[in-house]
């Protein structure tokens, strides 16, 4: 039998399996690419993935990911340890979801990660505390608005690399289909149109505020060639990179 709480490190080697017990995956450091029943998400610091029993899931981490794992024990353990939180605890582990933790939950996860969780008393009581706090918090609840500031920061950090809608949906704790419809409703754009526009806005700032070569800027914002980058800027702003840079310098004099 698995220990109730464990610290695990994930790397490029993909894990693909299912198990009879529910599992909670708490991000500590790095990023874990997580997929449950075909829906992709990201588990990062202070995010939680809930894996219901028998749910097929895959995970891997290109740069390495550290997580705290709670392998939920059987029904009798839940009855003995959750008390008044039993029903909400059962509901918690019924649905696959990825969500942000509240500050108090973050502190508890960090404390447990730094504690001797191989001690059966700490493991049992720590797991019960986590489940009780998560049960009452309804972690699967969807926020009323998308976290656009967080999404913008993620796009900026990864502008030079391929970005998938699944990456952004994971940050919002939504499935790809639900994220796409919510995004379109809130912004009037598809997620990938938004990413493209955000990359070009970043490129415009780099053209105006730095002396980086145009080819280097194109690469930094995800364009494989300078010609494709130039064509995108002309479509968006009606001017070439050199013209936009010269225009900005003329205005600053």
Automatic annotation (TrEMBL):
Isomerase is among the record's keywords: no
The keyword DNA-binding appears for this protein: yes
Superkingdom per UniProt: Bacteria
InterPro entries: AraC_XylS_family_regulators, Homeodomain-like_sf, HTH_AraC, RmlC-like_jellyroll, RmlC_Cupin_sf
SUPFAM superfamilies reported for this sequence: Homeodomain-like, RmlC-like cupins
Domain HTH araC/xylS-type: start-end pairs: 149-247
Keywords: DNA-binding, Transcription, Transcription regulation
Pfam entry (one): HTH_18
Function: Regulatory protein of the TOL plasmid xyl operons. XylS activates the xylXYZLTEGFJQKIH operon required for the degradation of toluene, m-xylene and p-xylene.
Protein name: Helix-turn-helix domain-containing protein
Organism this protein belongs to: Zestomonas insulae
